[in-house]
């Protein structure tokens, strides 16, 4: 089975009719900043993964790479905003930390 990253890199995603329809509907411009793909390559953002592999044009939004990164980061923050932080189970390297330098050491010049 093809995973997400293989799919996004695949010809079937690049030639997906819904992806091409959304690019055309957006006038081949970022829907946030109106860049035409010169400053940042255009990408097609999934508003939902409900139909991954058989997307509808309404599942997709044309964004430049820069706006896509911001949108993805924003959505990730929203998704995890209410999550409790799991206790980090980090083992301390030393029971009694030792100083990084030996204060009694005298360099022999
Ligand atoms: Zn943009």
UniProtKB/TrEMBL annotation:
InterPro entries: HNH, HNH_nuc. GO terms for molecular function: endonuclease activity; nucleic acid binding; zinc ion binding. Residues 17-69 form the HNH nuclease domain. Pfam families: HNH (PF01844). CDD domains: HNHc. This is HNH nuclease domain-containing protein.
